[in-house]
């Protein structure tokens, strides 16, 4: 195994030695970030649900993607959903966020069904599984980050935008465009945009899938901090061990059902 940092080799050795007894700071950081401890004290989430689905079902042709699922998310709570590909996780996330209507059942945001909702801009912020496609390739990063802030009638300084990127471990020119970013960098921009909106509900589909383990640890700490300030989060992931380190509940989805 070879460990790189800032374009240079900082460590080399057999896997068992480097992973079992790391001595170089860069290697130690990576190993520690890759093995998060489980969360021991789940939040006692109280208050009315920020979002709630009751008996929702969603079909795509003959495929039953979500089958009679009910779930409530309260302020300050992180709910993780794990499951195999095709189990219905992403469809459930879109239903909770109000991005798709259910075939049957109801979706309520802030206590009102999505059909008649009048919510403030940024009440719900999604972080999509494909971060590159979720960013407008014509826009500089500055405009992307400012979009949810401007939607609620506020302004965003370049200094605040730079701080938002720094919070997710990114230091890039605000005038760059998404096409010049890696997938992992685009994901961090999408996360920063969502956080700037100060949402009541953040729905994230595989938010750390394209990130290295050190950046993943920093981002999950940031998500936990956001929840501790009162935001409800629904996080879809394949990484149960990672979710267990910062989520209050981890639920399993299989064949459209939630357990």
UniProtKB/TrEMBL annotation:
The keyword Transport applies. Keywords: ATP-binding, Nucleotide-binding, Transport. SUPFAM superfamilies: P-loop containing nucleoside triphosphate hydrolases. GO terms for molecular function: ATP binding; ATP hydrolysis activity. It comes from Pseudonocardia oroxyli. PROSITE patterns: ABC_TRANSPORTER_1, ABC_TRANSPORTER_2. It comes from the Bacteria. Transmembrane segments: none annotated. Belongs to the ABC transporter superfamily. This is Peptide/nickel transport system ATP-binding protein. It holds the Pfam family ABC_tran. SMART domains: AAA (SM00382). One of its GO terms (biological process) is transmembrane transport. The keyword Ligase does not apply. Residues 51-259 form the ABC transporter domain.
């Amino acid at each position: 195994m070879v460990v790189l940092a800032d374009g240079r080799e900082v460590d080399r050795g057999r896997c068992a030695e480097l992973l079992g007894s790391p001595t170089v700071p860069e290697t130690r950081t990576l190993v520690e970030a890759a093995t998060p401890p489980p969360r021991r004290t789940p939040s006692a989430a109280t208050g009315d649900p920020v979002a709630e689905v009751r008996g929702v079902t969603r079909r795509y042709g003959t495929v039953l993607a979500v089958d009679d699922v009910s779930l409530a998310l309260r302020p300050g709570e992180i709910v993780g959903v794990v499951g195999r590909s095709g189990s219905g996780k992403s469809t459930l996330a879109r239903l909770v966020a109000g991005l798709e209507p259910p075939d049957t059942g109801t979706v309520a945001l802030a206590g009102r069904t999505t059909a008649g909702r009048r919510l403030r801009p940024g009440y719900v912020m999604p972080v999509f599984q494909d971060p590159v496609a979720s960013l407008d390739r014509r826009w500089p990063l500055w405009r992307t980050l400012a979009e949810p802030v401007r939607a609620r009638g506020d302004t965003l300084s370049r200094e605040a935008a730079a701080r938002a990127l720094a919070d997710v471990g990114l230091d890039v020119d605000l005038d760059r465009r998404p096409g010049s970013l890696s997938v992992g960098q685009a994901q961090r921009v999408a996360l920063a945009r969502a956080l700037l909106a100060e949402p009541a509900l953040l729905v994230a589909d595989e938010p750390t899938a394209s990130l290295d383990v050190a950046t993943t640890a920093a981002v999950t700490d940031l998500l936990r901090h956001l929840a501790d300030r009162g935001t409800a989060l629904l996080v879809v992931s394949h990484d149960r061990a990672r979710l267990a380190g910062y989520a209050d509940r981890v639920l399993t989805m299989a064949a459209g059902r939630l357990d």
